[in-house]
Amino acid sequence: MSLDGLADLDAVAQAEMVRRREVTAVELVAAAIERIEALNPAVNAVIHTTFEQALAAAAATPTGPLAGVPYLLKDLIIERADDQFTEGSRFLAGTVSTFTSELALRLERAGLVVLGRTNSPEFGMAPACEPLLYGPTRNPWSLEHSTSGSSGGSAAAVASGMVPMAHGND
Q1: Are the CB atoms for 166 and 36 separated by under 8 Å?
Q2: Bridge partners of 113?
Q3: Which site among 20, 108, 121, 139 is 20 to 30 Å from 148 CA-CA?
Q4: In sequence order, which residues have a C-beta less than 8 Å from that of residue 5 and are 6 or more positions away?
């Protein structure tokens, strides 16, 4: 399979490819980064990236059932030390987490490689993903529409094929 076809595979299939050594974790992550860079300007799903850290984590040969699979965290609820964390709020713009949430630790222990954060409405309170801080996330299937729910950025990132799965809690 070419690296171009990776966007069509779910997380389990991508992890299986890593296990079978058909692709490396670095190749999975690099391909996801390319898709994010190509698609995100129109969709606005990813509002903060940690690409260098993700490539380093992938190169360190992650282990776990989802080893090497690229993943995005929603910018709400879940924190990682030294990562931006704004919860979609202009009030929290520039805030950097000082600790890592248990959920983030478990996701990393499962082998997922975090590439950044997805857009979310301010404090998750609005029914549409259109925060003033980052602007609206667009539905990748119909760019003139925005996404719904506080996990709208994550949903758009997965629906567009940027990553095979992303954090959401709606």
Answers
A1: no
A2: 70
A3: 108
A4: none
- Asked whether the beta carbons of 157 and 32 are under 8 A apart, the reply is no
Query: Which pTM was predicted?
Result: 0.95
Phi, psi of 137 (to 5 degrees): -90, 135
The single residue listed with the structure tokens 């974790």 is 25
Separation between Cα atoms, residue 85 and residue 96, nearest integer Å: 6
Tens-digit pLDDT string for the chain (170 aa): 455 688 899 999 999 999 999 999 999 999 999 999 999 999 999 999 999 999 999 999 889 999 999 999 999 999 999 999 999 999 999 999 999 999 999 999 999 999 999 999 999 999 999 999 999 999 999 999 989 889 999 999 999 999 999 999 86
Distance of alpha carbon 110 from alpha carbon 106, whole angstroms:
6
